[in-house]
Amino acid sequence: MTVTEKVRLHGMAYGGAAVGRLDSGAAVFVPGGLPGELVEAQVIERKRNFARAGLLQVLEPAPARIDPPCPHFMAGCGGCEWQHAAYDAQLGYKQRILVDQLERLGKLPNLPLLPPVPSPLEFRYRNVAEFHLQGGALGFHRASSHQLVDVDSCPIVEDSINRALPAVREALAGQAAIEQVDVRNGADGLLVTLLGQTDPRAHKLLAAGLAERLGGDCRVAGVRIGSDRTRGLHGQPFVHMQLAGKRFRVSAQSFFQVNSQVAEKLAGLVTAEVGGGERVLDLFSGVGTFALLASERAREVVGVEEHPSATGDAHANAAEFAAGNVQFRQADVASAVDLAAERWDLTILDPPRAGCARPVLEALNSNRIVYVSCDPSTLARDVAVLAARGYSLSSLQLLDMFPQTYHLEALAVLAR
Ligand SMILES: C[S@@+](CC[C@H](N)C(=O)[O-])C[C@H]1O[C@@H](n2cnc3c(N)ncnc32)[C@H](O)[C@@H]1O
Question: Whose CA is nearest to atom 5 of ligand 1?
Answer without folding.
Answer: 286
